[in-house]
Structure formats: C-alpha cells, structure tokens
Design brief:
- The chain has 4 helices and 8 strands; from the N terminus they run E-E-E-H-E-H-E-E-H-E-E-H.
- The chain has an 8-stranded mixed beta sheet, sandwiched between helices.
- The chain is an alpha+beta fold.
- The structure holds zinc ion (ZN).
Length: about 180
C-alpha cells in the first residue's frame, strides 16, 4: 500500500451498517487503533468523541460492498500489477483452470471467472451507485480501471487472502503477456 494509497475497513454493525475504516492520508504500514474511524452507511462519522481525522474518500464504495455482499471486511489496494492489467483490459479480466482460483472459494481449479472492471471516476457517489451491477456473488472482488482493486471476505483474514489471490492472478497474466 504505497504512498498512503488504499484503504481497509471492517464491519462492526450490520443493521444499521457501521464500519471502521482507515483515515485518509495514513501510511498503512504504520497504522494504530487511532487511525480507524467509525462511520455509518453514508460515510458519516458515527462517533462524536473522535479527533479531526477524515474517513477515506472511498468510504462510500466500502459501504456499497457491505450492502450488496456478505462481506465483513473490505480491503482496497493500488498495485502496479492491478493498475497495469486493468489499463490493458476492457470491462473484465478472465481466468480459468488455475489451482490458485480455489483460494477464491471454488472447489476445483477448472472454473472460469470474470473479475469486473469499472471505469474510474473521482465521483465516489456515482461509483457507489453503479457498483452493485458489477458485484457478483461468487467473485469477491471489483477493479477500478487504472486505480486498484477492492476485495472482501467474511473476516479480515479472508479479505487479505482474496487480495493475495487476485494479485497472484494479475502477476501471472502480466508475465503471460
Ligand atoms: Zn483507491
């Protein structure tokens, strides 16, 4: 998570939705408890006793993912591999027949998956309204073109695992090009 890029969140309450998300502009290698902010589904700070930190600009997209999946944690990273591959692809990236696909929850390697790509936009409200039509039940990830990937899981550990599997797949495809 270079240059303070990316953001991490964990669901705390489901109804109504509340989640902890990393504050904007923090070095993700040096996070402490104080660098997470509790927000509601609209990205509004839900605890008034807190400091002057601002939630990530991408908070609304995390909220949308919580609403439309069974995710309990959402991780978002900008890597050279996911950025490059998304720029070289249209609206999805397809993988099949790889053992590592099982890390995304498939029982066997001989499946074909499509990881959706959305055009990047600085208007997070707009992105959070179109994202649901790209989210599928079996693929725990979503790419913003030229920007980064969102991956989720039922625990923070599973979200991390999914990020690692996706990044393996992206590196594999780039080496194949
Ligand atoms: Zn981002």
């Amino acid at each position: 998570m270079l240059g303070t890029s990316g953001n991490l969140s964990v669901l705390i309450e489901e109804n109504p939705i509340q989640f902890l998300i990393t504050a904007s502009g923090k070095d993700k290698g040096e996070l402490t408890e104080d660098d997470f902010i509790l927000v509601d589904e609209f990205g509004v700070i839900a605890r008034s006793d807190v400091n002057t930190l601002k939630p990530s600009a991408e908070t609304l997209l995390h909220s949308t993912i919580y609403k439309h999946t069974n995710a309990k944690a959402v991780f978002h990273v900008h890597t050279a591999n996911n950025t490059l591959l998304s720029m070289k692809s249209q609206d999805k990236i397809i993988f099949s027949d790889l053992e590592m696909l099982k890390g995304l929850g498939f029982k066997t390697h001989d499946v074909k998956i499509e990881i959706p790509i959305i055009e990047n936009n600085q208007d997070m409200k707009y992105l959070s309204t179109i994202a649901p039509s790209y989210i599928s039940e079996e693929i725990p990830g979503l790419i913003l073109k030229g920007h980064g990937i969102y991956a989720w899981g039922k625990t923070p550990q599973e979200a991390k695992k999914h990020i690692e599997i996706f990044e393996f797949l992206f590196e594999y495809r780039i080496k194949e090009l």
